[in-house]
Amino acid sequence: MWGRLQVPLLLALSAVGLAADSFELQLRPDSITDGMPQGFIFSLLNTSSHDVWVPTPAIECEDSFDGAMWLRLDFTAFGDAEIGGGRGCAIDTMAEPPILDRAKTWILLHAGQRLSWSASRDRLRYDTGQPGIYEFWAEYSPPAIDPADREKLRAAGIDFPQVKLASGHIAFRKEL
């Protein structure tokens, strides 16, 4: 029998610049087949009372220009089941464009609005073939911006995500 566990929403935030309540990271399954997720939708919700400019983050690979979204998985096997895996990314970066030029490509997110990105299981590189409990959550790393460039953005009136976020956990159960 395939099923889904109900897990309370957990929100873990660590403030680096903006108040921790300026954004919320949400994760939800994109589609479910035989009780298991076939992909996920990552969403950044602007919970502040003002506009914020958001760079489009990379999904699953480090990107020092625009930040990154990561899918995390904690697997608890039933019986002798094991899950293997591993992933990695390699991105060569040259000199970063000037910060105000980078900001021109960012998306304006008004208070209460959200931006969402979807990714398939193949792109996210996770396997759900073994019996057990699969607990998923997302993590967001903001763009790497040095203090001098943060000051340029502040002087130009550009607010942007500056905190690491984690979504609530979603658990699925796969029986033998």
Write a structural description.
With 176 residues, the protein is mainly β. The chain has one domain. The protein has helices at 99-103, 121-124, 147-155, and strands spanning 2-5, 12-14, 23-33, 36-46, 52-54, 58-59, 68-77, 107-109, 114-120, 132-141, 164-166, 170-174. Strands 1, 2, 6, 7, 10, 11 and 12 form a seven-stranded mixed sheet that branches. It has a three-stranded antiparallel sheet with strand order 3-4-9. Strands 5-8 form a two-stranded antiparallel sheet. The longest helix has 9 residues, at 147-155. The radius of gyration is 18 Å and the shape is elongated.
For the structure shown, list the relevant keywords.
176 residues; three-stranded antiparallel sheet; mainly beta; elongated; 12 strands; seven-stranded mixed sheet
